[in-house]
Design goal:
single chain; alpha/beta; OB fold (Dihydrolipoamide Acetyltransferase, E2P); 2 domains; elongated; DNAPol_HHH
Length: 264
């Protein structure tokens, strides 16, 4: 489950209740059907779970508190006939798409409403895209990419990694990172990186052997525009999937008497 801080039993109940009794009609309808406190409700509002209401997040936060201040849990699900949803007159409270993206990073570990590339300070997107790599065999390319996962492999020379990324067009590609380059240019957590490397195409499948890479900075969190000490806190929540291998390096050929010659 990706959503942080929301109890798993609540998530299961939300789905079960919807399957048994139909879609939620409003925020008020949801509160009447699901036992949830203001903290859990705020989490769902911040990930835009109530966008079907047509209300902004700021409006929903106000409405949630107005409903819960007089709500009696013992009356939940006791109404035989649903009362019409109360209309609250609220000012239009605007939010930027970047505020929504940082809500998602904080709660999910990655943005979903916009591309992570839209959060970069730079507008540079690389010299090549994943679709170009088959034509770049033995060539050096620069690519801007978002890290999806990396696989650790132990070797005699030290650790190496295989990486999986997406480019600014949302296409996947793979990389190889050997010990030498990793010592100077290590991974620095989830996010977008500028990669420099040579393309190798084997069996019609391209891989970039990375020689240099740098993690690229995202914009400051606009939710904390007046609090400098919090403007880059959410950035630390960006997830990366790391698969570690806990074994000794495989032996080299000469260590196990290879190569062996065919018998004549």
């Amino acid at each position: 489950m990706h959503l942080q801080s929301l109890e798993s039993k609540t998530a299961v109940l939300i789905q079960t209740e919807r399957e048994q009794n139909g879609d939620y009609k409003s925020l008020e309808d949801f509160i009447n059907r699901i036992p949830i406190g203001i903290e859990g409700l705020q989490i769902l509002i911040f990930i835009d779970a109530f966008r079907f209401t047509g209300r902004t997040k700021n409006q929903l936060l106000v409405i949630a508190r107005l409903i819960l201040v007089n709500f009696r849990p013992e009356n939940r699900n006791l109404m035989l006939i649903r009362e019409p949803v109360r209309e609250y007159e609220l000012p239009k409270l605007e939010r930027s798409e970047f505020e929504d993206a940082f809500d998602e990073i904080e709660l999910l570990g990655f943005p979903v409403s916009i591309s992570p590339f839209d959060l970069l300070r730079t507008r540079f997107r690389g010299d090549a895209m994943a679709k170009d790599l088959l034509r770049c065999h033995k060539k050096t390319v620069r690519m801007m990419a978002y890290l999806i996962s990396r696989k650790h492999v132990p070797t005699k020379m030290g650790s190496m990694y295989f990486g999986t990324w997406i480019d600014a067009e949302g296409q996947f590609f793979d990389t190889a990172h050997f010990t030498g380059s990793l010592k100077e240019y290590p991974f620095q957590g989830g996010g977008c990186y500028l990669l420099l490397g040579s393309v190798e195409v084997d069996y019609h499948f391209p891989t970039i052997t990375v020689t240099k890479m740098a993690k690229m900075p995202f914009i400051a969190d606009p939710r904390y525009s007046n609090a400098d000490d919090h403007q880059f806190t959410a950035h630390k929540n960006i997830k990366e999937d790391v698969s570690m291998t806990h074994r000794a390096p495989y032996p080299q050929e000469h260590e196990i008497n290879l190569p062996r010659h065919k018998m004549k």
